[in-house]
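Quick one:
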Amino acid sequence: MENRDFIITSSQAWDIAIGSTIKSTALEIAKKNRVLFISTPLDIASRVRNALSSQKNNTYEFRRRMDVLEGKASPLRRINENLWILDCPFTLLSVNKLPAQLFDFFNRINNRKMGKWILEQATQLGFKNYIHLIDTDLFRSRYLKEYIHPAISIYYRRDFVVGFPYWQKHGPRAEEALVRESDIVLANSSYFAEQLRPMNPNTYVLNTGVNLELYEASKSWSKPTDMERIPSPIIGYTGAILESRLNSALIYEVTRQLPQFSFVFVGPEDEHFHQHALHQQENTYFLGSKDIAELPQYIQYFDVCINPQAVNPITDGNYPLKIDEYLAMGKPVVATSTHTMRDVFTGYTYLATGKNEWISALYESLKEIGDKELKEKRIAFAHTHSWGHSVNSIYQAIEETEKQRRI
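Output:
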């Protein structure tokens, strides 16, 4: 698909500090099509909360949006020939705590305000017959189809956001409406697709892509300085270290049972992990947040990569992008056995549930170090999950929908 116009609204702002599936998707689409990415606007409560926080906690993401609100920065940025980022020079009403009827009323006002702004800017850019991709933006995009009139509307469940407390009050109802009213529904796992297809038969599974240029096993990096004194074998994890995602009790038991192994965690921690007894263990290392471009450097010096997920509605159907990143680097992988891991990664990873299975799997995975054939097998599999492959699946869904309309 080429020379089409896309508008993307997301639950994530463009300037977030961590890696982003929707940003990578937008960049891939923009290789052959024009894209207007709407950076998530601040609501009044978020603006006040961030303004009152200490300066060190005010992220670039927040400061950028404040600069736009205060007229210090242009709301429209051009990232490359085909990609524009649009910030909103206004705040939205904070509606999440309102009862349902008031929530719907004021959320529609927010949507109308956003829709008018998007339509104005898209018209100035000459966007026509655009495709609207909604990336789990349940509230701010709930009524946008009515206000920006896309040629095709797509809802993308990239994550089970309604499992998080913030979304539980109004999220399930808003998501169901978006699923039913969208022309196409994308789900990043078969587990999610099975949940959504009864509400919209035009539902497709969209596996996440991996940045193959960044995670390139043939490249050589120097060992990070904060890993120089960590003894092998090194069992490593990269990504957000969150109670909702990772099984801290399992990690604690496994690390205690394997004192001869070094367990390295690279990524930002939530308060649960920051205060956890894991920090007192001599064989467990928390190295903090790193720039995305640095992550392959760390993975290269892991002997085995892990994803010790908690199993819950948020994680069971989630597509763990980090697994593709690990495999693209050719590393043996041990991960918790979730629906998506069993569905997609069986045969390329060791899957485990309890402590004993995890310990056994780690021992088995260490035996694969130096096996060039298995390494190449992992890399080849990861290369079937490129961003190009992922976005082509979106194009196929659009083309099929347009074909059905012509019949």
